[in-house]
Amino acid sequence: MTLASSWRLAQASRWASRITFASVAPLADFGGRFLRMIILSRLLSSVEFGTSVALTVVISTAFMVADIGLDRFVLLNTGQQGRSALAAAHFMQITRGVVVALVLFLLAAPFARLFDVAAATDSFRWGALMPLIHGMAHLGPKQAQQHYNFRQDAVATAFAGAVSLVTAALAAWLCRNHDAIIYSLLAGESAFVLATHLVADRPYEVSWDRKTIGEVIAYGFPLMVNGVGLAIMAQADRFLVGATLGVATLGVYSIILSLSVVAVSPFYAIFSGVGVSVIAKNRPDPARFNALLLALIWGFFLFGFGYAAFTGLTLDLLAPKLFGPRYAVDLFARCVIAMIAFLRIVRGPASVLLLVDGRTRNLALANLAASVGLVCAFLFVRMVPSLEAVLLGVLIGDLASFCLFQRFLLFGAPGLSRQIMSALAFGLAAALGLLAALSFTGDPAAGDRIAIGLVSGGLVAWMARRALTIAQGSVTVVGPVTSRAGPPRRAPTGGVHEARWRGDVSAP
C-alpha cells in the first residue's frame, strides 16, 4: 500500500468515526421519540394521545421561539475565550429557561382551551418545568464538537432518550392518560442535564460578562426571529389541526408526519452538523470551498430525492402496520408529504452557508416565508375541513421558503450560479418525475413499487457519484467565493439546531 493510499485510508477512517458519533445523538433522539409515540398511541385512547401531542407541540414551540443559538455560539470559541463564552452562554441559558417557563405557566389555560382540552390545564402548567430544567444543562458537550468530538453529546442524548422511553412505557401502562408524556419529558430532561454535567470535560461556570453577553444577543436575536419561522414551519400546522379538527385528529396527523417528515430530522441533523463544520473550516480556501459546497448541494439533493421516494412508496404501507388501520394514508396525502419532505431537505446547503457566513437575518426571513403556507392552510381548512387541506397549505409555504433559500444560496456563492442551477434543475425534475409516477400508478402493486424504486435508486446512485467526484476534486469548479454579503462574521456557528427539541414527539 502506498503512502498516499495509507493517508487516504486513515482520513476515511477518521471521518467515519466522526460521522458515526455525530449520528448517535440525532438517531438516538429520534429513535426514542418514535418508539415512545408507538407506545403511547397503542396504550392511550385517541383523545388522550392527541392531548399528549398537543402538550409537546406547545413546549417545543416555546423552545423554538426562544432559541438564540447558544450551542452554535460556544462551538467555535477556543482557549480562554471559549471558557468565558461557555460561562456567559450558561447564564443566558438559565435566564432563557426561567422566562420561557414563566410564559408557559401563565399561558397554560389559554393553550388548553385552544385545543379544547380545558381539563388538561394542570398538565400544561407542569410542562413549564421542561425549559426550567433544560436551562441547567452543561453546554460543554456542544463546545467539544469544535474538535469533531461528538461523543459527549451522543452519550448525553442517548442516555436521556432511554430514560424518557422507559418512563413513558411505565407511565402509560399505569396511568393510561396523557400524564404519561409529562412524566416522560420530565425524566428525560432531568437525565439529559445530569449526563451533560457528567460527560463534560470543562467545569460548569456561570458568569455575566457584558461584552460576551452582547455578542450572544447580537448573534442570537435574529435567530429568535428565525425560531418563529421554524415554529411556523414545524408546529403551526399542528396548532391549526388541533384547534379546528380536534386533538384526536391531531394525533392522526402527528403519526402520519412522524413516519415521513419527522423521520428525516436525525439524518438532516447529521448532514447539517457535519456540513457546517466542513464548510466553515474550508471557507478561507476558495477552490476547496467551492468544491465542497457544490458537493454538499448534490449530497442534499440525493438525500432529499431518495427520502421522498422512500416516503412515497412506503408511507401507505407502514402507517397502518405500525399504528393501526385508522392511520391509513391516501395517495394525495402521500404525494404531498413526499414533496414537503423533499423541499425541507434540499434547503440544507443554503441554511449551512447562511449559518457559516453569519447571515442569520436571511435565514430567519427564509424560514418566515413558510407563514404563507399557514395562511393558505387556514383558508383551505375553512373551506374543506380535512387533513389534506392543511397539507396542501403547508406545501405552498414550504415551496415559498425553498425558493427564498435558493435565492440566498445563489447570492452567497455567485461564482457557482451555473452549477447550482444545474443541480437544482436536475433535482426538481427528478422529484416531479417521482410524483408523476406515483400519481399514474395510483395504488401501485408490488411490481410497480419495485420498478419505481429501482429507477429512483439509479438516480440516487448517479447523484452520489456526482457529489463524490466533485468533493474529491476531479471536477474543476471555477469562480469567486467571496459572498456579496461580505466576509464571514466572527459569530461562531454550527451544530444541530436547538429547535429540534428532544421532548417533541411531533416536530419535524
The secondary-structure class comes to mainly alpha
What do the pLDDT scores average to?
Answer: 82
Low-confidence stretches: 474-508
Rg, rounded, reads 22 Å
Principal-axis shape equals: globular
The helix count comes to: 22
- The number of distinct structural domains comes to 2
H-E string: HHHHHHHHHHHHHHHHHHHHHH
Number of strands: 0
**Strand content bin:** under 5%
Task: Quote the distance from N terminus to C terminus.
Answer: 45 Å
Largest sheet: none
Q: Estimate percent helicity.
A: over 70%
How would you portray this structure in words?
- The protein is an all-alpha fold and 508 residues long.
- The chain folds into two domains: 18-231, no CATH class; 259-483, no CATH class.
- Helix content is 77%, strand content 0%.
- It is built from 22 helices and no strands.
- It has helices at 3-43, 46-65, 70-75, 79-106, 108-114, 121-126, 129-134, 140-143, 151-175, 179-199, 210-234, 236-245, 247-258, 265-282, 286-323, 331-346, 348-356, 360-368, 371-383, 387-412, 417-441, 446-471.
- Helix 12 (236-245) packs antiparallel against helix 13 and helix 14 packs antiparallel against helix 15.
- It is globular, with a radius of gyration of 22 Å.
In short:
The protein contains 22 helices and no strands. The chain is mostly helical.
Task: Give a quick set of tags describing it.
mainly alpha, disordered C terminus, 2 domains, globular, 508 residues
Any chance you could write out the topology, listing elements then pairs?
Layout: H1 3-43, H2 46-65, H3 70-75, H4 79-106, H5 108-114, H6 121-126, H7 129-134, H8 140-143, H9 151-175, H10 179-199, H11 210-234, H12 236-245, H13 247-258, H14 265-282, H15 286-323, H16 331-346, H17 348-356, H18 360-368, H19 371-383, H20 387-412, H21 417-441, H22 446-471
